[in-house]
Amino acid sequence: MSNEIVMPKLSDTMEEGKILRWLKHPGDAVHHGDALAEVETDKADMVMEAFDEGVLAEIRLKEGETAKVGTVIAILRPAGAGAEASAPNGGGSVEPKPAEVVSAETKEPEEATAIPSSGPRLAPIRAAGAARKRRGAEANGENRPPRSTPRAIGRSEAADEEPAEPAKGTIAGKVEPPPPEFHPALSAVRSAGPTAIPAPPARDLTVATPVSDVPAPSGEAGKLRASPLARRAAEEAGIDIAHIRGSGPDGRITKRDVDNFIREQQLFKFRRLIAPREGMPGTREELSKMRKTIAHRMAQSKREIPHFYVTVEVDMEEAVKLKRSLEATELFEEDITYNDIIVKATALALSRYTRMNASYEDDGIVIYPHINIGMAVAVEDGLIVPVIHECEHLTLPEIARAAHRLVNKAAHGGFTSEDLSGATFTISNMGMLNVEHFAAVIVPPQAGILAVSAIKDRPVVRNGQLAIGKTMMMTVACDHRIIDGVVGARFLNEVKRFLENPASLLV
Amino acid sequence: MANSKYDLVVIGSGPGGYVAAIRASQLKMRVAVVERDLPGGVCLNWGCIPSKALLNSAEMMEAIRGASAEHGIATGEITFDFKRVIARSRAAADKLSKGVRFLLRKNKVDYFEANASIAGPNTVALAPVAGKPAPPAEALAAERILLAAGSGERLLPGMKIGDGVMTSREALVNDRLPASIVIIGAGAIGAEFGYFYQAFGAKVTIVELEKQMLPGFDAEIAEELRKNFVKRGVNVMLGHGYKSLARNGSGWQVALAAAGKAATVEAEAVLVAVGRGPLSRELGLDCVGIEADRAGYLKIDDSFRTTCPSIYAIGDVARPPLLAHKASAEGVAAVEIMAGVREPGFDLMNIPGCIYCEPEVACVGLSEAQARERGIEVKVGKFPFRANGKAVAVNQTEGFVKIVASKQYSEVLGCQIIGHHATDLISEIVLGRTLETTTLELGRSVHPHPTLSESIMEAALAAEGEAINF
Question: pLDDT (tens digit, 9 = 90+) per residue, A298-342?
Fold first, then answer.
């Protein structure tokens, strides 16, 4: 009696998922809520959590490997069940007995059977504050249990509004024999949702883990290939050799792989040691996936990109007037925000300074044909950067509409992968936070980021007279590998020129 | 055609060069080999192959000599034609050299007979070899150059070849058996020629500066070999340094020094077997700034690249040990790394070393002493051939197998064998080490009975204190 855990479908567009790391290993006891594995999807890295108790009997998808949604990736068997329970597809032959199906969510008996077989039910937490919209996994994999039906999808969605809680009471009531069915259902309540920062190249998305990519027992026969010496060394070091990635022919594990594994583990321990120590005041929080991604990408940016900064003060008097007059006339469907005005001005300047709309590569500079402007949006413990695509073709009201739509999604969820990827330049606007001035960190592989501060009443000189004007500080950070000071300064002054002559933005 | 650019030009057609060239051709490179002597290099023409042919004749002599006493087979007076012995070895070398030429042609490798030198990072200059037709081109353009120039015989100060003073090269074609010979150096070459000349009845003296034969080898193995040589009637003078060489009538007097005391030995001929050195000087290294160490070995990185990025080096010209099979393996590795089908790096710790005198000597990995020097706790399993059924049956009971394993994991760190067919037996250990085998697997693998190879199994068991037959 075992349950097949299948690759869950985590988003509308998800077709396959990659196991970044198994957090449980064969033989490990699994309790409700335990993190089973980290899964990389097209949108985000997710943590799959177990809904059920049992023992992880078998892992079928190795770390680093990718499988289509619905493919069986692991087998969970009830604690105390015999070894035969772990036989492949062992659970498939068991006729489900509706009365024993464990689910508090069951509302209609005929759908109850679908639940256990519906595979992991996961929901990426989208931007903080976003509504959780769960999708049931489509059990369309080759290895799905026979009882699985397409109705599972509908059922899972129906259950969305309820907390993902298996009927523990039902289990508790049954002491002997163990419950016949265990839900492979999983949740992703700890996931960070969409990748925090749009990253056109997928290569940097994976957060490095201290444990190397681990193969499960490889090969058809499931026979693990390792040299006798490696086996012996692993055994003496108390390491399960299945956790080690082999570097030999066909992934054969050699002594060196064991040595490297041990060294990595020690290094990991060491890193932990130099992290906040026991006894020191302070609480330790696990990093969310979003935080990890932000940490990784920002560190990479500062490590690799030589930043330089240029700041100008922009007279926003005319822009303020423009915004007010547009509001007063209610000409457009959406209110035009300062942010929209800045996006439009930036897009115009970028179309003239194409080097700012580019990426550095080791052997060249990629100039992008389209101007896709990302806007950093704060969410709970993190930020996301939705993207307005092809700004060069958009009028100010079109930009306003696109921005409005994205802001809505940030609040309520529903981003598509396109919404969060493909930015060629980013604007970070902290105007609403009343800052005087700040500089931002470039999002790799972009070449620049514009940091926009608050519009404030400041003394200005007009016609030789001191007056009170509305001004705004703007700082652009540039990748010095492809942009020099002159270009950065000219670009920024171009943005300033458009903002100070905002009629041009309506053309 | 000669002027169009090659993907790879290999200098030297020895076991390193020709194997690398063929592998490169298999990997779709356009390849040329430049050789100043004969295809196959020293190994085929002046080393491994002809010397093994001579040793085979020597073994034959010993067997026939032993036939009467041991087997009751009467032979009458044994005579031999030394010229035929030498000629047979030349025929073997010629046959294989022609085979190399054929293999190169078959693999579409262009072959140039010329003196090669580096004229630039991508240019190999060709100069005529004395007495041979001029090469069809003065230079070859090459994307990459592989130096596989090999090594040459070393001499000591004051030595001059001729009038009975030989290196292995002269000895291989010397068809007049000397009545007596002094061999300076008790390394692999000295031991093999010592055995050979002794078998054919010459009075042999082997002089060695070090305190043991086969310097660098396991001391126990070396001592076993010394005893064996002494038993055969060879005069082995250890700890004797060479001083000078003087003509003495029709022969030579060799002046020696041992612990401050002078000594002399006289003989009709002298064989200088004091090792070999890399042939790097004439390659034009300065032209492109290739660095070499003081001994002349070229500096290479993990990818066999010299300090000039387009030029690679393998085999004897790159680094010790000076062994044909090491050169071949390096040649294949270098070319595969160039082609991007292999990761950089090469394990020098699993190169077997073999000596083909009787009894044969073979070893791989660490000796007991070397392992201890590295601070590894070891267990040693030893098994003598006199306890092996097959060895007794064929009356080849000399020697033993010694396996050095780590105490921690029973990892097979090394193995030394002295005895009949030792050089064939060692391959099991080489494979075992490649697969990271421990003594447990060696001990549990069923070996056919009766064979000499059972001694490997028994030695592995002995390392665990579980040998059955000893």
Answer: 999 999 999 999 999 999 999 999 998 888 887 777 789 999 999
Q: Hey, of A227, A229, A231, A254, which one would you mutate to test binding to chain B, going by the most B CBs within 10 A of its CB?
A: A229
- Is A232 touching B (CB cutoff 8 A)? yes
pLDDT tens readout for residues B96-110:
999 999 999 999 999
Q: Which of B408, B435, B440 sits opposite A227 (nearest CB)?
A: B435
How high is the mean pLDDT of chain A? Answer: 73
**pLDDT band at residue A276, thresholds of 50, 70 and 90?**
low
Q: Does domain A305-506 have CATH number 3.30.559.10?
A: yes
Give residues with Cβ within 8 angstroms of A336, minimum separation 6. A323, A326, A327, A396, A397, A400
* Minimal CA separation from A263 to chain B, in Å: 18
CATH T-level fold of A199-304: Dihydrolipoamide Transferase (4.10.320)
- Find how far residue A444's CA is from the centre of its chain: 16
> What does the pLDDT read at residue A394?
94
> Is the pLDDT score of A168 beyond 70?
no
Decide if B6-44+87-152+277-349 and B359-463 have a common fold.
Answer: no
Asked if the model's pLDDT at residue A219 lies above 80, the reply is no
CA distance B37 to chain A (A): 39
Catalogue the E-assigned strands of B273-316: 276-278, 311-313
A481 touches chain B (CB under 8 A): no
Indicate yes or no: CB of B438 within 8 angstroms of CB of A228. yes
Calpha distance B359→B370 (Å, rounded)? 23
Distance CA B424, CA B427 (A): 6
Q: How far is CA B159 from the centre of its chain?
A: 23
A255 inside 8 A of chain B by CB: yes
**Is residue A49 a contact partner of residue A67, using CB atoms and an 8 Å limit?**
no
Distance from CA of B369 to the nearest CA of A (A): 22
| Percent of chain A predicted with pLDDT > 90 | 33
Question: Chain A partners of B435 at a C-beta cutoff of 8 Å?
Answer: 227-228
CATH topology of domain A3-194: OB fold (Dihydrolipoamide Acetyltransferase, E2P) (2.40.50)
Kindly report the CATH number that applies to the domain delimited by B6-44+87-152+277-349.
3.50.50.60
* CATH no. for B359-463: 3.30.390.30
Judged by CB atoms closer than 8 Å, whether chains meet at A228 and B408 is answered as no
The topology under which CATH files domain B165-274 is FAD/NAD(P)-binding domain (3.50.50)
Q: Are B213 and B191 in contact (CB under 8 A)?
A: yes
Q: With an 8 Å Cβ cutoff, is A236 touching chain B?
A: yes
Q: Which pTM does this prediction carry?
A: 0.57
User: What mean pLDDT is predicted for residues A188-198?
Assistant: 39
Give the residue numbers of A marked as catalytic.
480, 484
User: Has residue A152 got a pLDDT over 50?
Assistant: no
Q: CATH 3.30.559.10 residue ranges in chain A?
A: 305-506
Residues of B in contact with A255 (CB under 8 A): 411, 436
ipTM: 0.76
Positive or negative: CA dihedral A391, A396, A401, A405 = positive
